[in-house]
Amino acid sequence: VQLQASGGGLVQAGESLRLSCAASGRFTSIDDMGWYRQAPGKERELVAVVSSAGSTNYGDSVKGRFTISRDNAKQMVYVQMNSLKPEDTAVYYCNARITIPTIVGTLSDDYWGQGTQVTVSS
Fold first, then answer.
1. Which of 43, 27, 17 minimizes the C-alpha distance to 107?
2. How far apart are CA 51 and CA 80, in angstroms?
């Protein structure tokens, strides 16, 4: 199972970016999908998460500016980031709770993408 993130880059404050993340490999199902970020010297924090049913949860610092969505048919998750601020600068990681088949049944675990850099200049 692999998560491949894309869409990061360098933008100015107030501009927008859209991150995408695709899940690939052999799995039974995908539960929650989401985005986390980690700035230099800081802990990794929640950006947004969306359940398989479509319910969402956002980190306080991005509420009202970021929108998470997913395409279950394509096994993809997106985050639309508007009104970006310099403090949004970080490496953004996609995450998914994925169930894989095993010899004795199934196994659920958290998987992480490789991270994509978002830099917002003032």
1. 27
2. 17
Q: Are 35 and 105 in contact (CB under 8 A)?
A: no
Per-residue pLDDT reduced to its tens digit, 57-78: 999 999 999 999 999 999 999 9
Whole-number Å distance between alpha carbons of 31 and 110: 10
First to last CA, the chain: 38
- For residue 118, the one-letter residue type is V
Burial class (CB in 10 A: 0-12, 13-18, 19+), 86: exposed
φ, ψ of residue 68 in degrees (nearest 5): -100, 145
Per-residue confidence (pLDDT) for residue 10, from 0 to 100:
98
